[in-house]
Specification:
This protein has about 170 residues and is α/β, with parallel strands linked by helices. It has helices at about 25-40, 65-75, 85-95, 150-165, and strands at about 15-20, 55-60, 80-85, 100-105, 125-130, 130-135, 140-145. The strands form 2 sheets. A 5-stranded mixed β-sheet has the order 3-2-1-6-7. It is globular and about 50 Å long. The relative contact order is 0.19.
């Protein structure tokens, strides 16, 4: 939405987060459809009532502008938030969370060197971790879930975490 984003955006409420990119042909749209279905069954928008906030962090800041991210996540749920940043900040955050991403040549899936500069080719692929992160109201990563992200699984996991952390 054009504003700054930091740890303070994660405090005071539960947050679900996913790392991906808007040009993703399969993993990201599938995950976001599943997560959007969770929010539809919750009957509320992210950040309202018991619904955690949902953040989609891009791993492709070269193509994923704030405007592109807003359109992309808004397609799944208008309450979802997209976040981009400088390549070096994204790279550090992904590494600190124990996740992974790399740029690839889509013709042969060859991994390209580095993620701090845009690949030389016009079209490139991105391989990335596909995990749903659960972030506590204290802005701490407390759990990670592998797909599929079905309503019953996500809600059971979230409710268990809320009980454990007293929220």
């Amino acid at each position: 939405r054009g504003g700054k984003f930091g740890n303070t955006n994660l405090t005071g409420h539960w947050t679900l987060a996913f790392f991906g990119f808007t040009y993703c042909p399969d993993v990201c749209p599938t995950a976001l459809n599943e997560i959007a279905a969770v929010y539809k069954q919750l009957g509320s928008m992210p950040g309202e009532g018991m619904a955690p906030e949902f953040i989609f962090f891009t791993v492709d800041p070269f193509r994923d502008t704030p405007e592109e991210l807003g359109k992309y996540v808004g397609h799944f749920n208008t309450g979802f938030v997209g976040v981009t940043g400088k390549p070096e900040v994204i790279s550090k955050l992904v590494a600190d969370l124990g996740l992974y991403y790399a740029y690839t040549d889509p013709d042969d899936d060859h991994v390209l060197d580095g993620v701090l500069q845009r690949p030389a080719m016009d079209y490139y692929g991105v391989i990335h971790s596909s995990r749903l992160l659960f972030i506590s109201p204290q802005a701490e990563l407390v759990a990670v879930m592998s797909p599929p992200f079905k309503f019953d699984n996500v809600m059971e996991f979230l409710n268990t975490l809320r009980k454990h952390y007293g929220d």
